[in-house]
Amino acid sequence: MNKRLFVLLVALMSLSLIGIISVQFLWIKQSVEDKEEQFSNTVSEVLNEVSSKIEERETKDYFERYINIKDSVGEPKSSHLRNIFFIDRDINSNEIRFYSHGILEEDYNIASTFFDNGNGTDTITTIKNYTSKRTKTIFKEDYGLDGKEYKLNAVQKLEKIGGLSAIEKAQFEDVFSEYAKKVPIHKRVSNQEIKLLLNRELKNRNLNIEYEYGVYSRGLPTKVKSRKFKFAKDMLYETPIFKDSEGASNFSLLIAFPKKKKFLIQSIIKMALLSLLFTLVIVIAYSGAIYQLIRQKQIAEIKSDFINNMTHEFKTPIATINLAVEAIRNPKIIGDPEKVDRYLTMIREENKRMHAQVENVLRISKLEKNQLDISKDRVDVHDIIEDAIAHVELIVADRGGYIETHLNAARTEVLASEMHFTNVIVNILDNAIKYSTDAPRIDIYTEVAKNYIVIEIKDQGAGMSKAVVKKVFEKFYREHTGDLHNVKGHGLGLAYVKKIVDDHQGEVYAESEKGKGSTFYIKLPLI
Fold it and tell me: Among 76, 105, 240, 79, which residue's Cα sits nearest to residue 168?
């Protein structure tokens, strides 16, 4: 994949993911705000309903007390009527409609303690009865023969005597409200009544939440409040209570919800968690996709390096073999047995070298497919180390280096494949030799840690960065050093080591610092 296209694809996917996450968080934020607005509207309805019911109850109490006093007094001693007249004439039908509406006021003229002003004194109050009287009369105009005389005939007359109209009743209630203003608030409404009404109205609207309430008079607290009520302006809902005819009031009913935020969050928590879960799935899937894309790109680059290295390393022995064959074909050389033997030895060694490279590739492939037959026997780790050293000591000596052993483990027997485990040690030693810029200096240590034997192979070579140490056991991975072929290899040796050690239920890891050498540790379970 083109690098520019890859970067563009990752950028577009990242922007899409950020957009999805942003939309999710905006949705959650908007849901909380909508719930809060809905909650506020519902609470306002509750407060208005509670306030109305308290006012209705107070008015009803006054009416009942008024009726009881009136019934106990008997007939009124005096009365007078206030009438309102209205005349309407219909020209087409020659009819005159006469409307009359009167309020009959009957005075009981007695002293009463009907209204309690809260100071313990009696108030002289005139108890009166009001009756509404409505009359409707229709007159017909009849003219004489000469058209000069006419008379009125009563065609219809309706008369109704009953209670007061809504307007009259409102006027009557206004009288009560004026007197009620003198009564202390704790005698007009009780904590039990407010709590009962609030509980009922909140339950009817499915608001199961703790609350605190209080009645305030012109911003000052009264005795009517819940035990834990505290004034906090930004957390309160308020409505006027005991309003007069003009809608004004000296008292306010306040309610607070200490756990409002928790209640609002709980109302959308299920949907929010579900949304976050799906967002998390998308993030994980996206991260996995990006990781795989980057991984595939790295593998493509590594395989490309592997092919280049393999081509280079096959090209050299092939060229050597061709030169040796051409030399042998020379009549002067073919007559010299010593030179022929030397060229034949070169051909054999180069052929073995190519065969070993192919075997490495095939061995790793079989390991990954679990097709490599590994038979394990009781072996001595020290013997395997000595055998592996024998494979590379001539190379080390040729470069003027050394391999020293410090085999201090008291127990050394493990269950392992002698051939494969020897290859493991050889591969690590070969790596230490290849990456030593000067003469290779290698130390091998062994020790027992609980039920494990630990093999430590320490060199003083070029070393590795932390980033390289993390990837050094990956297949085809090789550290980029500027010149692709300055150190021969395919990135398969340490991958093979990792596979074999894992198959032996062991552990292999490395420690290194750039310019200060590397140390490889192999940990195997003892028998």
Answer: 105
> What is residue 173's predicted lDDT score, i.e. its pLDDT?
65
Cβ atoms of 384 and 405 within 8 Å: the answer is no
Contact 232, 256 (CB under 8 A): yes
Q: How far is CA 444 from CA 8, 258, 456, in A?
A: 50, 70, 6
Query: Got the DSSP string for 3-35?
Result: HHHHHHHHHHHHHHHHHHHHHHHHHHHHHHHHH
Strand 251-256 relative to strand 212-217, pairing: antiparallel
Q: Do residues 178 and 244 lie in contact, with contact meaning Cβ atoms separated by under 8 Å?
A: yes
Of 359, 374, 390, residue with least CA distance to 501: 374
Given 3-state DSSP classes, what are the helix, strand and coil percentages for the chain, each rounded to the nearest 5?
Answer: 50, 25, 25
Pull the structure tokens for residue 502: 């894992």
463, 518 Cβ separation under 8 angstroms: yes
- Report how far apart, in Å, the C-alpha atoms of 124 and of each of 114, 117, 132, 527 are: 9, 12, 26, 113
Closest listed residue to residue 125, CA positions, set 175, 199, 52: 175
What count of other Cβ atoms lies within 10 Å of the Cβ of residue 455?
Answer: 24
Nearest partner of 252 among 198, 216, 222, judged by Cα: 216
pTM summary value: 0.43
Q: Determine the distance from the C-alpha atom of residue 86 to the mean position of all C-alpha atoms in its chain, rounded to a whole number.
A: 73
Q: What is the dihedral of CA 421, 422, 423, 428, to 10 degrees?
A: 90
Q: Which residues of 432-443 are buried (b: 16+ CB within 10 A; e: fewer)?
A: bbbbbeeebbbb
- Does position 484 have pLDDT exceeding 50, yes or no? no
Q: In terms of C-beta distances under 8 Å and separation of at least 24 residues, what long-range contacts does 297-305 make, across chains too? A: 297/1, 297/6, 299/476, 302/475, 302/476, 302/477, 302/478, 302/491, 303/476, 305/476, 305/478, 305/484, 305/491
Give yes or no for a contact between 215 and 239, defined as CB atoms under 8 angstroms apart. no
Q: Is the separation of the CB atoms in 388 and 422 below 8 Å?
A: yes
- Token pair, residue 254, equals 């306040």
Residue 506, token pair as written in the block: 């062991």
d(CA 56, CA 242) in angstroms, rounded, equals 9
328 Cα distance to chain centroid? 78
The answer to whether 385 touches 403, Cβ cutoff 8 Å, is: no
Q: Could you give the CA distance from residue 434 to residue 370 in angstroms, rounded to a whole number?
A: 29
Q: In three state form, how does the secondary structure of 408-470 look? A: CCCCCEEEECHHHHHHHHHHHHHHHHHCCCCCCEEEEEEEEECCEEEEEEEECCCCCCHHHHH
Q: How far apart are CA 348 and CA 283, in angstroms?
A: 57
Q: Specify the pairing of strand 441-449 against strand 452-459.
A: antiparallel
Asked whether the predicted pLDDT for residue 527 surpasses 50, the reply is yes
Query: How many CA atoms does the CB half-sphere of 425 hold within 13 Å?
Result: 32
d(CA 326, CA 335): 14
Inter-residue contact 210 to 259 (CB < 8 Å)? yes
Query: What pLDDT sits at residue 485?
Result: 42
Stretch 500-511: mean pLDDT: 88
